[in-house]
Design brief:
Length: 357
Amino acid sequence: MNDARPALDLHALARDIKRWGQELGFDRVGIAKPNLAVDEARLLQWLRRGFHGEMAYMARHGVKRARPQRLLAGTLRVISVRLNYRPPGIEPDARVLQDARRAFIARYALGRDYHKLMRKRLQRLAHRIEATAGPFGYRALVDSAPVLEKALARDAGLGWIGKHTLLLSREAGSYFFLGELFTDLPLPPSAPSSEHCGSCRACLNICPTGAIVGPYQLDARRCISYLTIEHQGSIPESLRPLIGNRVFGCDDCQAVCPWNKFARPTDEADFRPRHGLDTAALTALMRWDEAEFLERTAGSAIHRLGHVRWLRNLAVALGNSPCDEAARDVLRARSQHPSALVREHVAWALARQSDKS
């Protein structure tokens, strides 16, 4: 940390940082104080209830997630940034979900992974700040360390945390990524956002598995995003029929949110769908061997899922699809897969297909 900085007009610097951030391509920039005591208490209660499921890292990091100073000693402020990701011109979610022979993939994962893109921009923002303020302590983060990023973004004025536990903005809905630049600069903070969910319960009512157990309370163990992305093992049989054709994540609570009528499509070419993943048939995806999976998902959020869990998720979706010989053919082709996890879900899917015939 540098304690011998020249005198700075911190208010002017804060205004410049917000402008520079938008010039670099971020849709909104704000500044927060790293005071998250209330959010820390909520996090600990969530962990005590076991709502984190198999995400042991959530418990392992504990209060560190709510204490930015433990990630960067001397942190005084957090510069929070927002970047829209919903691609323009894609079909409405409901239309894809209603076509049970097609795969639904969470909109954020249709294009290239966002981590490197945002981290590079945050680094460039830090360099701009340094050119004006001189050397300073900072750390750029995009899902790369334990951070309560939604709480920090709320305090930076980028939105409020909705009843579905996602960040919401009146001018941009919720289809955006978040990133942070921790800094030891004592910048003037932005005004925190107020809440605007009111009495609406649309997200609670739409959740296919009832994972939103109450306003602002998410039981990840029932969440389709958790089950299809974070969960390593067998998906509970009782929840499989509720997953439908969602093979990577779930956007139902976002799609139904009234504020997302204000969501703005992204201008980022990297976030546009690749390899037809926004319209792909389940049977076509099930035919991908491991080499093809790795090639077609390279540089995407789907890549880290791995081929085995990809097949697991597709098997569940095919079990939920209409009785179809093509579906049964691709399932049979995987019935002797080396992975017991794949074989189990394929057997379940074939039994479901047989019950419909």
